[in-house]
């Protein structure tokens, strides 16, 4: 898919005020600092569409972008930033739960994980939450250019094994790097194929 236009639509802390769910929507989420903004910018080919966070955990907003006037890309607030208070965490939980249950147009959620780090309970818990709600998701390995092919294969195997402890099937895993652009074509083709269904 060629990206012709990528425009910011709205930022929200109130999921009910997100744009009308009239176009297919794809959400991106992960632990703060996982490389979400960098990935969104890499995918859209816009250097500063999503703000790379100098202050992780500060922006607890749902950001909608419209791509090619045809589908929504949603930048969801990250989780797992240690310095966030319990109240903030609870607010995040309520906001995300409301978002996830009020977007009938949400086609797929991309759960980003740092390829260098072993499977983390917080990521697995988030995936379990998606599973409970019957929401499709895929996994995106970020920062993969930092790993050798052998190390990357090892992480992939480990992730798949961990997933099989609780899931019948392993979700699709995309190998990406915002530095090298790896995974861009694969993710955009994946979205395009879902848009055509
Ligand atoms: P966010 O908090 O998840 O939005 O993460 P950012 O996109 O702001 O990235 C967090 C840090 O990881 C920044 O220092 C980025 O430069 C770095 N980063 C993001 N993607 C990559 C990548 O693909 N490779 C490498 N080496 N660093 C990355």
From TrEMBL:
Record organism: Nibrella viscosa
Keywords for this protein: Cell cycle, Cell division, GTP-binding, Magnesium, Metal-binding, Nucleotide-binding, Septation
Protein name stated in the entry: Probable GTP-binding protein EngB
Role according to the record: Necessary for normal cell division and for the maintenance of normal septation.
Domain EngB-type G: 22-197
Cofactor(s) it depends on: Mg(2+)
PANTHER family xref list: ENGB-TYPE G DOMAIN-CONTAINING PROTEIN, MSS1/TRME-RELATED GTP-BINDING PROTEIN
Entry's family note: Belongs to the TRAFAC class TrmE-Era-EngA-EngB-Septin-like GTPase superfamily. EngB GTPase family.
InterPro entries named among the record's database cross-references: G_ENGB_dom, GTP-bd, GTP-bd_ribosome_bio_YsxC, P-loop_NTPase
Gene3D superfamilies associated with the record: P-loop containing nucleotide triphosphate hydrolases
UniProt keyword Nucleotide-binding, yes or no: yes
A Pfam family hit: MMR_HSR1
